[in-house]
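Example record

One chain of 225 residues, shown exactly as stored in the release files.
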Amino acid sequence: MKIQISDNIIRHYLKNVYFINGHSYAGKSTMVRMLAQRFDMVHCGENYHDVFPRSKLSRWKQPGLCYFDTMSGWREWLNMTPEEHWTWTNQVSKECVEIEILELIRVAAAGKKVIVDTNIPPDVLREISSYNRVAIMICDPPDVCATRFFDREDPDKKFIMEQIRLCPDPEATLQNFNSWALYHPPLETDWAHTGFFTYTRSDFENDTREEMLSALAGHFGLEEQ
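Predicted structure tokens for this chain:
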């Protein structure tokens, strides 16, 4: 028998979980961190599914998540075509849904509110959560990360740039890497019309964090509690 859990049961166990999804570079990670600090919430940052032991993953059941263990080297990953990269990230997203839902049920069991920087797609969020527990953050223009991805000073981006520089043709590899953000897949998510509350970031020069925080806190009803 294949195990299935009804959406109403999952929704009950996730009633204290608040989700933020959307475009890269829209400010999701920053908002999740600030909301957690301001309202004493449990912080689940991007890639929280990494808490699941890699040794327990299956190369047959989770081939996307196991890709980095099976690839020939970073050059192979960096030279994926935009189509290949989208197929891989889409596979990873689907594989992460199970892990992330179960991990959030575990974290939420302590009774505190949980704020999540999630990759769970909108169609799944509609099944397991509600309008006032989900926010979508988007960029205008949506492909701004293609030019500003490496503006952020964090270890992962520094590592990627180091690997790009080790390739035979770093300039071509960087151009290919940036092209991933410009690719429009056949099943592209329409982030602006998910049916959920949406906040658009269009100012990338000024500090608008408090404005964004106030809008999200208001939507989630956090300031009323």
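Notes: The chain has a mean pLDDT of 90.
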